[in-house]
Specification:
heterodimer; A: about 290 residues; MetI-like fold; B: mainly alpha; 12 helices; globular
């Protein structure tokens, strides 16, 4: 055996070891989810007696699902989450793209001021804003307990980051000559933006959709402060309140947790490539 | 139409930036400024009156031992969590960029915890710690064992473990981007000059990935300092308030005990400390950055 063959063999062994390490780590990473999945099909007594067994003594049951669905009003909270996430994401994208456009293309003081304020505000954590937010919109204005309030607040919190990203995308990727050509062809600024600029922003739109939709879907603190009526709950709040009431009925808890995770996991199964790509480009730019 | 007219500028500005401006001012700027004002009042959350109390809330915050204990705990928690998150994330990124089969599959798999909100993750792990871990411990020792979550040290350990598991996959993606940005030719050149792979990693790849480290450490510090969801669902501050982290203390101070002014002052102090730590880290990190 010559040197290069030896080196090749060594490389193969290293790769095999790495693969084994990866498989073990992967298994450890998803084991909490696997535990939920195997226990969701057991009765309460079986979970308590042996949470690690694949199938309980009393056999396989799907009884936990309908009961948990009814008790957490799954379809209502699912609908709320979908409406809030979709509306807030669409609004964030439209408003931020428009703001980014006017800021990049005009050197007015009002644009620079808004942009600097937005960039500076990105360091402010939500915890600093939550008390005054409740005080203003709960105490003074009195608009809590409306889905629309939450949607607009979600949008307000995410426009700065999204505007920053659209600003970068328009600045680097969209040649101003395109807009001048559109102007000569008779487009006004509004038409130029919607017909020329916005369609060219697709990659950034995809990135922001993924980042923001995931953040809105999973957010707990803000929705829990804004929506205090049971029929307005989103999935995270419903999970929290469900656990508070039924924590001893562990079979139901398992079903509720799985139901809370399922929508996004199913989506991930299909859009996995885009989500990983979107999150990476969002994280590296942001 | 004259493009230099003020009316044109104003209408353009308001049409395009107006909606974003209004929402941004309404949710971020106004509450921020109003929050500064609130720290000088003793509002109880119900009455219309907001009596002005000067610096009392800051005095209360500085003498609130529970707050400083929570902050100290947050520091300890963040210290271990940040180091472990980044070590694991870097290791994972190294493994999934080394040319092993199924890289994309593993990347996607390690990212899964980030898809799910902290509340749900906390309850999933609560089940794992309270039931599965206990069942394993019972099987090994033959007796009955308490859950890790029922001891103060154990609860903190669990919080750190869950945070590491939760964020490692996200940071891994940033490190993966960092690994990909280092040209292979540089590593090969180093190897030809007689470097072992370990030396090439230490002296070529890692220095060139400094920006990724700075970014990941910054992100993990800010997230750990402000953690709330997992803290609430996994430990709820128990046992005996020994795992209340700073954000949870602020929440309780304001919304449970109705000391809105003091809570807001404590939130501001937390933010300032977090900002100082984060900025210092970025400053130190950026100073020694090298270009490829």
């Amino acid at each position: 055996m010559n040197d290069s063959q030896k080196a090749l063999q060594k490389k193969k062994i290293i790769h095999a070891v790495m693969l084994v390490v990866l498989i073990v780590l992967f298994f450890l990473f998803i084991s909490p989810f696997l535990l939920v999945v195997i226990n969701v099909f057991k009765t309460k007594a079986d979970i308590t007696s042996n949470p690690l067994a694949l199938i309980g003594k009393h056999g396989f049951t799907v009884k936990n699902f309908p009961e948990a669905m009814k008790k957490m009003s799954f379809w209502t909270v699912f609908f709320n989450s979908v409406v809030i996430t979709c509306s807030a994401t669409v609004l964030t994208i439209i408003f931020s793209a428009m703001a980014g456009f006017v800021i990049v293309r005009n050197k007015w003081k009002a644009c620079t001021l808004l942009f600097s304020l937005m960039v500076a505000s990105m360091v402010i954590p939500f915890q600093v804003l939550m008390v005054p937010l409740v005080s203003v919109y709960g105490g003074i204005v009195g608009v809590l307990n409306h889905r629309l309030t939450l949607i607009l607040m979600h949008t307000g919190f995410s426009v700065s980051m999204a505007t920053f990203m659209f600003h970068g995308a328009i600045f680097t990727n969209i040649p101003i000559e395109l807009e001048e050509a559109a102007f000569i062809d008779g487009c006004n600024r509004w038409q130029t933006f919607w017909k020329i600029v916005f369609p060219l922003l697709k990659p950034t739109i995809a990135t922001i959709t993924i980042i923001d939709a995931m953040a809105f879907w999973n957010d707990y603190l803000l929705p829990s402060l804004v929506l205090q009526k049971k029929e307005l709950y989103t999935i995270p709040i419903a999970t929290q309140s469900f656990y508070g009431t039924y924590s001893t009925d562990i079979g139901l808890v398992m079903a509720a947790l799985l139901l809370a995770m399922l929508p996004i996991l199913v989506l991930y199964l299909f859009l996995q490539r885009y989500i990983v790509k979107g999150v990476t480009s969002g994280a590296v730019k942001g | 139409m004259n493009r230099n007219k003020l009316s044109y500028k104003v209408s353009q500005y308001l049409t395009f930036a107006g909606p974003a401006l209004i929402l941004f001012l309404g949710t971020v700027i106004i509450p921020f400024v109003y929050g500064l004002y609130l720290t000088f009042t003793s509002w109880d959350g119900i009455s219309r009156e907001k009596p002005f109390v000067g610096g009392d809330n800051y005095v209360a915050a500085f003498t609130d031992t529970a707050y400083w204990q929570a902050l100290g705990r947050t520091m300890v928690y963040s210290f271990f969590a940040v180091i472990l998150i980044n070590a694991l994330a870097f290791f994972l990124a190294y493994l999934v960029t080394s040319g092993v089969k199924g890289e994309n599959f593993f990347r996607a798999g390690f990212f899964v915890p980030n898809l799910i909100g902290g509340i749900v993750l906390g309850y999933v792990w609560k089940f794992v710690f309270n039931r599965a871990f206990v069942a394993v411990a019972d099987a090994i020792t033959g007796g009955s064992n308490p859950s890790l979550l029922s001891t103060p040290g154990g609860a903190m350990f669990c919080l750190i473990l869950v945070s590491v598991w939760q964020y490692a996959g996200y940071m891994m993606l940033i490190y993966v981007a960092g690994f990909m940005s280092v040209p292979d030719s540089l590593k090969e050149a180093a190897m030809i000059d007689g470097c072992t792979p370990a030396q090439a990693m230490k002296d070529v790849t890692i220095p060139l990935m400094r920006a990724s480290f700075v970014q990941c450490i910054f992100l993990s510090i800010t997230r750990c300092f402000m953690v709330y969801d997992v803290n609430l669902s996994l430990t709820k501050g128990e046992p005996f308030n020994s795992s209340v982290l700073a954000a949870m203390h602020v929440y309780n101070q304001a919304f449970t005990y109705k000391n809105y002014g003091t809570g807001q002052a404590e939130a501001l102090i937390l933010f300032v400390i977090c900002a100082i730590v984060g900025v210092t880290q970025v400053y130190i990190g950026k100073k020694g950055e090298v270009g490829a």
